[in-house]
Amino acid sequence: MQQSLCLLCRGSKLLCGMAYCPIIVRHIAKLRVRNIPDKNIVYGSSPPSLFIGRIGYPIVHIGPGAPPYTGDTSIYDHPESWINKPLEEILDYRFSIITGRTAVKIKDIDNKLVLILQELAMAERPVDIEMVLKKRPIPRVILDEYVPPQGPSAPLMRVSLGGNVKVNRKMEQVYYDTDLRTYDAVMTLYRSGVSVSQIQKLLSVGGIGTLRRRRLVPTRWSITAIDSMISEGLLKEVRRFPLLNEYLVFVRKYMKNLFVAILAPRPWSYEWMECWFPQSTWNPTGSKPIIEGDYEGFKGRTEYPDIGGCYYASRLATLEYLMRIRRQATAILLREIYPGFNLPIGVWFVRENIRELFKRRPMVFHDIREVFMFLKKITRVDFNVWVEKSVLLRRLMREDRILKWC
Prior knowledge:
Blueprint (H helix, E strand, L loop, with lengths): L2 H7 L12 H13 L6 E6 L2 E4 L6 E8 L20 H10 L1 E8 L6 H10 L5 E7 L19 E9 L7 H8 L5 H10 L4 H9 L14 H20 L8 E8 L2 E8 L4 E8 L13 E7 L13 H16 L4 E8 L10 H10 L5 E3 L2 H8 L7 H7 L1 H15 L1
Parallel strand pairs: 4-6, 9-11
Antiparallel strand pairs: 1-5, 2-3, 3-4, 5-6, 7-8, 7-12, 8-11, 9-10
Helix pairs in contact: 2-3, 6-8, 7-8, 8-9, 9-10, 12-13
């Protein structure tokens, strides 16, 4: 990278072609690591934040998280509020949180620490906590494909909450209803306005479902489970709606990403496809773009998609839109990830971007060929390549040809 670019840019214009300023991110990481308390006691306001690991399952590391200061930290662990924030700012939130961890069996939901985490998961506002750690937090940060970025951590000796915790009443009601099935509990919370990230936390700490089946769920798994469950619930209703009358196309460009949604006047089916360009997160050394994806028909799918949790995150956001307009459609979503976007920051990025995508006014078309002509001007990958890789785009083309001859 030419140093002269950095002098001209100074982190504001992204002249290097990255989705973020690497100098600022590096500075944030060093600053947060440098500001880790020297002593093994952390006192701060948990957003609330908690983590359930997956390594060692069915014995997993769990614990609360908080920055080493008090105040309104609610945005630090609320992905629904991050979408229009600079990536550097989001990383600053996340790297500030110090997590205390200890090993617990997944079925040990009466464990004292688990009960504290359950109370945190239901909190409506930040909670002051004191963590006594066995040693100074490890000065490192973790970036993951599924979960939001994680800050420093250390083995936890004990934790205490400062004062009474104001809990969400609907979450508390579901928590104490030990005869309510997990799916019914999740949909009850979602329909009452509880955010997806809050529901995910309560599931991960074993606070949802019938008593016999409650257990700790690793954060990574609970994120995908909630996206999947809620979208399945919405799909049951969407399948009964009338079809769209035309083709709708939505386009969003954001942070070295292109998101495209094509809604066709056909019965429900769904496809999510990603194209990773060279020098992007999952294609760092490649010489050409790589396209992968998965799809489902009217009845949905029974196997976990190869493309991962982004499939369910995007499906949820798509079904939320169809619920709003009370229509059924075949939905094909495409994502192009360009050079410079090379940090894994979690599936929240996809969910919230697709939600934003569907807030925009769509382009309206009456013919699939018009849709293709429009998208050929939008995508960097030759749109014929997208069609070649996509099951549902090819299906729409075949149906269009058949109709022409009828």
